[in-house]
Amino acid sequence: MPGQIPLIGEKFPEMDVVTTIDKIKLPDYFKGKWFVLFSHPADFTPVCTTEFVALLRGMKTSRS
């Protein structure tokens, strides 16, 4: 599956990612939990602020 985006229901590919927390291995870091992978193309690129805000609001709603 290299170079392809996984579809809903497919196994999440293993990967090492750099986060604001530390470098982590996905999906092992969240084993047994749900997680949302939200990314942007690169630092200092224009990403719609409303998308970040909508994600944050959705996360707060899903936690309650």
Question: How would you sum up this structure, described in words?
Answer:
There is one protein chain. By secondary structure, this protein is α+β, with helices and mostly antiparallel strands. It has one helix at 49-63, and strands at 15-18, 23-26.
Quick tags:
single chain; 64 residues; alpha+beta; two-stranded antiparallel sheet; 1 helix; 2 strands; 23% helix; globular
List the helices and strands and how they pair.
Layout: E1 15-18, E2 23-26, H1 49-63
Secondary-structure element order, N to C: EEH
- Kindly name the structural category: alpha+beta
Q: Tally of extended strands? A: 2
Low-confidence stretches: none
Name the overall outline.
Answer: globular
* Total tally of structural domains: 1
Beta-strand percentage?
5-15%
- C-alpha end-to-end distance: 36 Å
Helicity level, as a percent range?
10-25%
- Count helical runs: 1
Strand order in the largest sheet: 1-2
**Rg computed from alpha carbons, rounded to a whole number of angstroms:** 14 Å
**Biggest beta-sheet profile:** 2 strands, antiparallel
Mean pLDDT: 80
Produce a short descriptive summary.
It is built from one helix and two strands. It is α+β, with helices and mostly antiparallel strands and 64 residues long.
